[in-house]
C-alpha cells in the first residue's frame, strides 16, 4: 500500500551531514513507532527519499539497510522497500532507541515512572526478602560513599530502582523499567548533580518501608520520591530555557 506523500513529508526534517545515514534511520524508525508508517506500506524510491531528506542516495541506501537489519524494513530486489510487521523484541529495542534519541520524551518517561513505580514498590514490599533488602542497603551505602567523593552515583540510582522491580518477580516489569532506566541515563546524571542529597533521602525512606514490609508506606514513599524527581526536572528545564 503506497503512503500519502503529504503525511510522509510532514515528518521529514533536513539531515545534517554528521552520521547522515543514522539520522535518516532514526526519522524512519520514529515514523514506524508513531504509526505514520504501517506494516505493508511501501517507502518512496531511494532517489525520491534522497531528494526529500536532502542527502545522497548512498546515505539513504545505508539507512534502509540498517533498518532492514533490525527487521523493520524489507528490501525487495527490484520491487521496492516495505515496512515489516514488527516482532515484540524488535519493538522493544526500537522504542528504547527512540526514547534515548528524543529528549523531548523525557518528561513523558518520568510521568510513566510515576504511574508505574509506586505500584512496583507496593508489590515489592509484599514480596520482600532479606536478600534484596541487603542488596538495597549495599546500594545505598555505595551511593553515599560516591557522593562523599563528588560522584553523583548514576549507576547506584538506576540499580536501586531496578532491584525493587526485581523484588516483584515480574519479568515484564523488570524489562520495562530496564528500558526506562537506560533512556534516562543522561537525565539522571543531571538531576543527581542538582538534587543528589534529597534523592538519596527518598531512597532511604523507600527502603525503610520495604524493610517494614509495609506496602502502603512503600507506595507513598516512591510516589513522593518521584514527584520530587519530576519537580527537579521541571526546575532544571525552566532554568535552561
Task: Please give a structural write-up.
- The protein is mainly α and 241 residues long.
- The chain folds into two domains: 5-87, Orthogonal Bundle (Arc Repressor Mutant, subunit A), CATH 1.10.10.10; 102-240, GntR ligand-binding domain-like (Four Helix Bundle (Hemerythrin (Met), subunit A)).
- It is built from eleven helices and two strands.
- A two-stranded antiparallel ribbon has the order 1-2.
- Strand 1 (73-76) and strand 2 (80-83) form a beta hairpin.
- Helix 7 (130-148) runs antiparallel to helix 8.
- It is elongated, with a radius of gyration of 22 Å.
Short structural description:
The protein is mostly helical. The protein has helices at 5-9, 20-33, 46-53, 57-69, 88-101, 106-126, 130-148, 154-168, 171-183, 185-211, 215-240; strands at residues 73-76, 80-83. Strand 1 and strand 2 form a beta hairpin.
Supply database-style keywords.
single chain, 241 residues, mainly alpha, Arc Repressor Mutant, subunit A, 2 domains, 2 strands
The arrangement of helices and strands along the chain is HHHHEEHHHHHHH
By CATH reckoning, the class of the largest domain would read Mainly Alpha
How many domains would you count in the coordinates? 2
Q: Sketch the major β-sheet.
A: 2 strands, antiparallel
CATH homologous superfamily classification of the largest domain: GntR ligand-binding domain-like
Q: Number of helical runs?
A: 11
Strand tally: 2
Q: Please give the order of strands in the largest beta sheet.
A: 1-2
Strand content: under 5%
The helix-and-strand class reads mainly alpha
Radius of gyration: 22 Å
N-to-C span: 43 Å
Would you give the CATH topology of the largest domain?
Four Helix Bundle (Hemerythrin (Met), subunit A)
* Fraction of residues in helix: over 70%
Q: What value does the average pLDDT take?
A: 85
Low-confidence residue ranges = none
Form type:
elongated
State the CATH architecture of the largest domain.
Up-down Bundle
Amino acid at each position: 500500500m503506497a503512503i500519502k506523500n503529504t503525511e510522509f513529508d510532514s515528518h521529514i526534517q533536513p539531515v545534517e551531514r554528521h552520521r547522515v545515514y543514522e539520522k535518516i534511520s532514526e526519522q524512519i524508525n520514529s515514523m514506524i513507532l508513531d504509526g505514520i508508517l504501517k506494516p505493508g506500506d511501501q517507502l518512496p524510491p531511494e532517489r525520491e527519499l534522497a531528494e526529500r531528506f536532502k542527502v545522497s542516495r548512498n546515505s539513504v541506501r545505508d539507512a534502509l539497510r540498517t533498518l532492514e537489519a533490525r527487521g523493520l524494513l524489507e528490501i525487495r530486489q527490484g520491487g521496492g522497500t516495505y515496512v515489516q510487521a514488527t516482532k515484540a523484541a524488535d519493538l522493544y529495542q526500537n522504542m528504547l532507541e527512540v526514547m534515548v534519541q528524543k529528549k523531548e520524551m523525557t518528561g513523558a518517561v518520568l510521568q510513566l515512572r510515576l504511574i508505574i513505580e509506586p505500584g512496583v514498590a507496593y508489590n515489592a514490599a509484599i514480596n520482600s526478602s532479606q536478600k534484596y533488602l541487603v542488596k538495597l542497603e549495599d546500594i545505598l551505602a555505595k551511593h553515599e560513599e560516591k557522593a562523599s567523593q563528588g560522584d553523583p552515583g548514576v549507576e547506584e540510582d538506576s540499580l536501586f530502582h531496578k532491584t525493587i522491580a526485581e523484588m516483584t518477580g515480574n519479568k515484564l516489569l523488570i524489562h520495562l523499567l530496564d528500558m526506562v532506566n537506560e533512556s534516562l541515563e543522561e537525565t539522571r546524571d543531571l538531576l543527581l548533580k542538582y538534587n543528589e542529597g534529597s534523592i538519596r533521602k527518598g531512597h532511604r525512606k523507600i527502603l525503610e518501608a520495604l524493610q517494614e514490609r509495609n506496602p502502603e508506606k512503600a507506595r507513598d514513599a516512591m510516589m513522593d520520591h518521584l514527584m520530587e524527581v519530576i519537580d527537579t526536572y521541571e526546575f532544571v528545564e525552566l532554568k535552561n530555557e
